[in-house]
Amino acid sequence: MIKAKKSLGQNFLIDRKILEKIVSVAPIKNKIVLEIGPGTGNLTSFILKKKPKKLVVIEKDKDLVLKLTNIFTNQISIINDDVLNVNENLLFSKKVVVFGNLPYNISTEILSKWIINSNNNFWFDHLVLMFQKEVADRIIAEYNTSCYGRLSILANWKLNIKKICDIRPESFSPRPKINSSLLFFTPKENFSKIKNPKNLEKITRIFFSHRRKMLKKPFNQIFNGNQKILDKLKINLKLRPQNLDLNTYYKLTNEYENLRC
């Protein structure tokens, strides 16, 4: 019997109803599917029942790789590596459907990597991903809410996001101490063109490091009180960072990049 490793953030999903719900979210039949962190193969089995053209799994734990190899023999292709080390753009020649019960300790890092490294030609069609509920709430948060912040702005830049359901701790073994949420992502056909995603990260980092304060301080830090930008974007410096909508942050990043040309 495989014991979950806390160091890898392992919590194995065992609830059949939830597993069935997950594989019903996105099309699988005759598709190339990537599963992140298959663990003991519970979701893997449900994916295979939907008859994908090919199933590739990425699993860091060598003990689990051995178990998966014994269970599924030639039904799946296994990459024994950390997902953060994998270049998905080089791995697939066609767009794939991604499923993942992401390790909570690196879930935002994984999502950020995929967003930043995806150009106009996304390597995936759909993402069906599980997050700690608190993180999922930040991803889908709307402006003027307490959860809205840097992650909301980055995630919604290139992706349409839909919450599917919340998942209680008893659906896992071992049981985590927190609830989880399942989110469904699809690439946007049109999104704000930003030359360097690191500039969006910089803008949001500076603004939200002063989350409880008015916009005047971070704006002046970046733009030195540039009145033309204020007038163009109709920004009220008495507001706070969570009061600016998504598009305003993308436009601020464009203005920042224009000033640096």
Question: Could you describe the 3D structure shown?
Answer:
- Helix content is 38%, strand content 19%.
- The protein has 261 residues and is α/β, with parallel strands linked by helices.
- It has two domains: 6-187, 3-Layer(aba) Sandwich (Rossmann fold), CATH 3.40.50.150; 197-259, rRNA adenine dimethylase, C-terminal domain (Helicase, Ruva Protein, domain 3).
- Strands 4-3-2-5-6-9-7 form a seven-stranded mixed beta sheet.
- It is elongated, with a radius of gyration of 20 Å.
Order of helices and strands: EHEHEHEHEHEHHEEEHHHH
Characterize the overall form. Answer: elongated
Counting helices, strands and paired strands, the structural category is alpha/beta
**Domain module count:** 2
Number of helices: 11
Name the CATH superfamily classification of the largest domain. Answer: Vaccinia Virus protein VP39
CATH class of the largest domain: Alpha Beta
Radius of gyration from CA coordinates:
20 Å
What's the arrangement of strands in the largest beta sheet? Answer: 4-3-2-5-6-9-7
**Can you tell me the residue ranges where pLDDT is under 50 for at least 5 consecutive residues?**
1-9
CATH topology of the largest domain, which one? Rossmann fold
Number of strands: 9
Question: Mean pLDDT, as a whole number?
Answer: 93
Distance between the termini: 58 Å
Q: What is the percentage of strand-forming residues?
A: 15-25%
In CATH, the architecture of the largest domain is 3-Layer(aba) Sandwich
What level of helicity do the residues show? 25-40%
